[in-house]
């Protein structure tokens, strides 16, 4: 049985789901000859680690307890004294994680799993790389920081996986990595990478006003609490940056041309969410309606996509032919069209749910299993 | 620089293309820190190996020469005396390959790459497994032999890759393996896995008679020399078997329900290709036309697919909703719809060219690179 030790950073929706997956996959993973040893779990406030990080683990009872505590909205520090573990405050947390990394990195490839949404983890991750740790990310922030940070994180390219940073568990990164290693040059990627914006664009295509569609999306729970976090395109542009960097483009987030679906004067610093939803949004209806109509006159549809091609990397509304995987998209699926030498006339298409804690955590888990051959 | 030693078995269209890819990817692979050392190449008649299999390789000049000799239709034995290599006849070939396997298997994970279409390679492959070799297959035959053979080949499950046995280079196996290792149970796979039959079914949907469509497909080079090799569904059923076995179904080829598009009395043993094309085929037009019409009355379309669900594994024409990736399929793309816990309402869809030497060889190459972490 091969043991993969890991520390989970971030224990919100995705992180908790990952712990549940790990526990429920015990017998499956045993059949695959693998045991995942969870050495520690941290959130933004605390860290809980096995009492003997070198040998022991947070057992399944403790992991279940971690999930329960988190779903109650309590702090991990509540676990102090429960089972064989120790808890640390946020200020001690970093030192403790790095201590374990230096103990286990080079010898075992200790996996630092980042399921947080924080830009604070990149420091620990970079030091972890130097200590021989493997890195698995669902968190986009570390990969969309500076190029210097990015290069550091991917410097041991076989030691990092980050499938769930784009399209949740969809096999996007793994498929692109296969294309790269087979020397099939990627000419163009066009992707609808936001379930929310995919839904919005296919609904306005059906003639509904943007304002109404966004409000329905919000009430269906498809959007962030402030829908402008989706409509700004920032989340999509982070995903575009991760894809572009994977293709070898040395660019920063600031180099990406991003089309926001609302104007600056309706931004969060100038207008409350309520004012935006009840007053601002409706002013955007006519423009979108007209663009939809014009596209339709050309036999086309509008999609909010990222386009990566040559030196071009942009995010925004594009007019696309109806007769394509992207053009036919309905609902909240993510769709990627990848054009290469081998997929030149018809693209390689990967499509499916691109959000949700379950599939995001499943992607992280597949990544962890995927690096099992690096260490004995 | 990590060296991956390999022996290529089968040097027809796919094998030759693989050698060309290996040569043209030298600088790319060097950047990835990997060097592919081709120790030997065999076809059905001969074997050519580096003069010192333990240390040396067939260099790029020799590999290019191998491709030239093969494209001329000549024998590999012609290479005797060219560069630092030795050639062996078919009768010596197996012993020689196994000699190298025993020399390099356990210590280096020597990769046995099967790009043949032969059922004769399974013996060498099985012995290679015992000697610690890795296995990469484009050849479906070894995996669709008996369950006993299959179990032997996959007994070291991290030591085998066979992406290009289904959907050519499409990331099918790698994606399914990710789902499996993340514990996301696969409830149902429906796939159009024959470019030829995909083309045929979408053309008859447009009202063309089957006989005419098959003849056009043949003249376009989409079919095997005898189109019945496609229409029988045998090739699709081998792919279905590989998928089903990957999902853990312990079944034999004979357990798959296969719908042939021609009746037994028009089979190759009873009718020549010419008689089939000029007399037999036209008799099948009415039946297909009626089925297409009936499906259309239900708002559906017909597709020739494999369906794997529970204990069910069958291959044939299915009536499917137009409003799905499979229903919208036009032309010769392969499409897979995979339904799991995470992809339950909308499936995970993988679509693209599922045939061609270039993409098949690219899939093989990605597989070879994918096992680089198993050996130092």
Please state the overall shape of chain A, judged from the principal axes of the Cα atoms.
Answer: globular
Low-confidence stretches of chain A: none
Q: Tell me the β content of chain A.
A: 15-25%
Total beta-strand segments of chain A: 13
Estimated structural class of chain A: alpha/beta
Give the CATH superfamily of the largest domain in chain A.
Answer: NAD(P)-binding Rossmann-like Domain
Order of helix and strand elements from N to C terminus of chain A:
EHHEEHEHEHEHEHEHHHHEHHEEEEH
Q: Give the C-level CATH assignment of the largest domain in chain A.
A: Alpha Beta
Which pair of chains forms the biggest interface, and how many residues does each contribute?
A: A-B, 48 and 48 residues
Which features characterize this protein?
homodimer; 376 residues; alpha/beta; Rossmann fold; Dihydrodipicolinate Reductase, domain 2; 7-stranded mixed β-sheet; 6-stranded mixed β-sheet; 13 strands; 39% helix; globular; homoserine dehydrogenase activity (chains A, B); HDH_short (chains A, B); NADP (chains A, B); EC 1.1.1.3 (chains A, B); HDH_cat (chains A, B)
């Amino acid at each position: 049985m091969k043991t993969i030790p890991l520390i989970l950073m971030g224990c919100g929706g995705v992180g908790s789901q990952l712990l549940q997956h790990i526990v429920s996959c015990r017998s499956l993973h045993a059949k695959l000859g693998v045991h995942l040893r969870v050495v520690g779990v941290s959130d933004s406030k605390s860290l809980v680690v096995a009492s003997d990080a070198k040998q022991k683990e947070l057992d399944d009872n403790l992991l279940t307890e971690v999930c329960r505590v988190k779903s109650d909205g309590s702090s991990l520090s509540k676990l102090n004294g429960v089972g064989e573990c120790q808890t640390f405050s946020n200020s001690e947390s970093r030192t403790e994680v790095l201590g374990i990394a230096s103990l286990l990195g080079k010898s075992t490839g200790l996996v630092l799993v980042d399921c947080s949404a924080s830009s604070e983890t990149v420091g620990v991750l970079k030091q972890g790389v130097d200590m021989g740790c493997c890195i698995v990310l669902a968190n986009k922030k570390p990969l969309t920081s500076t190029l210097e940070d990015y290069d550091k994180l991917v410097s041991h390219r076989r030691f990092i996986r980050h499938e769930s940073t784009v399209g949740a568990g969809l096999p996007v990164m793994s498929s692109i990595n296969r294309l790269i290693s087979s020397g099939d040059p990627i000419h163009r990627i066009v992707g609808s990478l936001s379930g929310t914006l995919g839904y919005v664009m296919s609904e306005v295509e059906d003639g509904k006003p943007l304002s109404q569609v966004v409000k329905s999306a919000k009430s269906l729970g498809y959007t962030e609490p402030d829908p402008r976090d989706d409509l700004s395109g920032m989340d999509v542009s982070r995903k575009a940056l991760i894809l572009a960097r994977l293709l070898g483009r040395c660019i920063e987030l600031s180099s990406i041309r991003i089309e926001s679906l609302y104007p600056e004067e309706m931004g969060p610093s100038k207008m409350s969410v309520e004012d935006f939803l009840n007053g601002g949004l409706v002013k955007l209806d006519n423009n979108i309606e007209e663009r939809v109509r014009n596209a339709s006159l050309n036999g086309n549809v509008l999609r909010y996509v990222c386009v990566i091609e040559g030196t071009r990397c942009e995010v925004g509304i594009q007019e696309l032919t109806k007769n394509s995987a992207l053009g036919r998209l309905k609902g909240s699926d993510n769709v990627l069209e990848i054009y290469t030498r081998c997929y030149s006339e018809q693209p390689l298409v990967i499509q499916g749910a691109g959000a949700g804690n379950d599939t995001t955590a499943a992607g992280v888990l597949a990544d962890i299993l995927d690096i099992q051959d690096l260490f004995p």
